[in-house]
Amino acid sequence: MRRARLLCVVILLGLLMACSGEQAQDPSEAPAAAEPTPERAPELVQPTEWWSVHPRPVYASLEKVGTYQDWFDVYMLAEGTYAIYEPNQFEESICYLVLGEERGVIIDTGNGIGDLRAVVEELTDLPVSVVNTHTHYDHIGSNSQWDEVSVYDHPDEIDRLQTGIDNARLQRYITDEYLWKPLPEGFDGATWTFPPTEPTTLMHDGDLIDLGGRTLEVIFTPGHAAGHACLLDAANRILFTGDHFYPGPLYAHETDVDIDLYVESNLKIAARVDEYDYVCAGHNDPWVGSEVIPRVSEAFDTIFSGGGEFTEGDGLRRYRFDGFDVLIRSEQVLAKTSS
Ligand SMILES: [Zn+2]
Questions:
Q1: The whole model's pTM is what?
Q2: Mean pLDDT of all residues in the chain?
């Protein structure tokens, strides 16, 4: 979950208008019994007219395969590597279809709007299974379209899959403020649910996923979520980062984010930056130069040493760096800088 740089006008509006006490967009980050509220997220988190970021510049340089169901834009990033992007909903989720010689995986399944499996089946005849980087709602939406689902072996991730998400808790994600364009034909918001599912494979740090002539390494990167994992395709020099990194506001402010673990995880993948050239992120832009990863570590060093430029409102700070932002609660920064 993330968002791009919307600028001064929006921020001023935000300071005047943002009043919601609820900052999470993600029902999986709320208490299990919580109902969605109709209140807006703070402007620093979800700018009014967030869609003004479109078209994001990187897409003009990518090879577009097509638009499916008036909802998914598909790009080929490298041979057997597709980004399936949902530009019309605030999350701007990106799923990745990664194909080997014998089988493929779909890395995350978006927010379940549109028929993701139908898109995948237009792109390949190989058998495909799901790998979730983590289990926030905007990464598991179409999981139930597949029989095989891999997730990191952590109780939080397993529980979220086993619980599913009911229709009431999903409603806010298809309100007007979340949508840029109409929902796809055939989508029924009144019956939209994420049914409970059982993971079929539990992943561990260092596991190798063999696709036949192509291997993905599981790298445990807790912080954004307790059981978050990145996937390294070393032969093709690509790191799939899920929500550990995306070019937008990184959500350090969410109550279930563990910043210390996040920073530690970032150091872990920064130490291996010579093994990948590109980052395939879970949102916004699918093709980001790997040099950004060490800069994320530097950004947190800057914030926690009292530096960096930020806008503040609703107890939040939005720090701006080259290629990404950091959303963090003011009290988190003050606690760090005073210790
Ligand atoms: Zn997430």
A1: 0.88
A2: 90
